[in-house]
């Protein structure tokens, strides 16, 4: 699946460690609600480590994504991304180098890179990223090693510095933040807990999509 910036509108990220019921169920509901991209981030305490189980999970979730026309992205694990036939890979600064990631996945897969500063954003562009993830926007409990909060101001700063690559904002984002985040120059929002912890992932996803559509008007 080819990358287009509107796919960043409502980017749902999750792994089995983020949910208390089958991830597939939560993903289906979020997809019905209107998420536009999904990333399997099987990471941290409680996550699945066995390669065969990670592959089975990835294949199951990719199928759901494709039923709903959503790109399926794998966090960090280039072997898993390739083995599962994912649409893309997302790497952080601590993971494999973005340029290596690009050469391993080839030119047709989507590459996302986390960038904390304008310098990292510029490097990500040189390394062949299709989009960057910028955050944490707000306080988050979903990432064990999250950096200090940067706020939407960091996105404004990147745009002022001439960074034009599509941006997804991440970290502690709720639907009421969408307007501010889009105004700062991001294409969309990435969320874990706002969807995984919601009583209705479908309604939560729909609320994000509605806010994105309002912000675009
Ligand atoms: N990277 C920066 S913050 C974060 C990641 C993966 C976690 C986002 O999760 P939440 O629950 O939406 O704050
Ligand atoms: Mg990572």
From TrEMBL:
Query: InterPro entries per the record?
Result: Aldolase_TIM, ThiamineP_synth_sf, ThiamineP_synth_TenI, TMP_synthase
Checking Pfam families in the record gives: TMP-TENI
- Domain Thiamine phosphate synthase/TenI: residue ranges: 10-195
Q: Which cofactor does it need?
A: Mg(2+)
- Write down how the cofactor binds this protein: Binds 1 Mg(2+) ion per subunit.
Could you state a single Gene Ontology molecular function term?
thiamine-phosphate diphosphorylase activity
What are the EC numbers?
Answer: 2.5.1.3
Family the UniProt entry places it in: Belongs to the thiamine-phosphate synthase family.
Q: What is this protein called?
A: Thiamine-phosphate synthase
This protein's species is Alkalicoccus halolimnae
